[in-house]
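User: Quick sanity check before I run a bigger batch. Here is a single chain. Can you write out its predicted 3D structure?
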Amino acid sequence: MLKDKLKHIYEQKYKTLLIIPILLVLLAIAQISIQYATTGDFVNKGISLQGGSTISFPLDSSITAAELQTFLNERFPQADITVRTISSAGTITGIAIDSDIQLDAEITALRAAIQEKTSLKTADISVEVIGSSLGENFFKQTFIALIVAFILMGITVIIYFRMLVPSLAVILAGFSDIIVTLAIFNVTGMKLSTAGVAAFLMLIGYSVDTDILLTSRVLKQHHGTVMERIYGAIKTGLTMTTTTLVAVAVALIFVKSDTIKQIMLIIFIGVLVDIIMTWIQNVAILRMYIERKHK
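Assistant: Done. Predicted structure follows.
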């Protein structure tokens, strides 16, 4: 029976199963390294993190966002331009154009091109410019916040468990989750915004809570066998994970805001990756730790 076979593999081949999370982490590190070598950044940064301009205006029935994207790409082939819609209460109300253009003359040319393809007047178009130094400063601050949050999480875990190996296993699972999620996010081609960084901060909590649940059940409870405690943790943990995935999936489907979609996408990817990092990687490390401790 398939269920019994999978159960046997999970219980008896747990060291072999470690290949899966290890391979995922190695592939993620390779992707991030290639990204850094080719672009100079380990992540695709949006306007709020690298600097640029955002031009927004009310919805114009004479042209769609896709048509405007094609037109601007042809007119400004050297610029990095993204056309997106602006929604309110589920209804598209306007269009925003994000680009790496910062010079006044280039912004004027871009605005003229928009007016050429639409019936908009100059007063209908608003321009917001973020300098490269300001965007870089935003990125440094949010990146530092992410590192500090991860370090504080690690200190809290070590203080709580007061056992080095299990604590490091929890920290490693959280680190692996962040690294693999970041690599997958890069592959999607989306550009990270300050809201996306906030999503990674949230992901630290989402990824660690299941690991703490598992470690607490296995090490602090004494009734039943180790596998019985693990299966009990799996039942609770996957229930938590499933409810999160359903809620996030609903947001991805129905919410129109690009900012919220990015947050939900990062959490969705991270929670899926956490299933592997917690219930394969962390379980294997804990079982090896317990076996070695008993010997």
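The radius of gyration is 23 Å.

User: Great, the batch can go ahead then.
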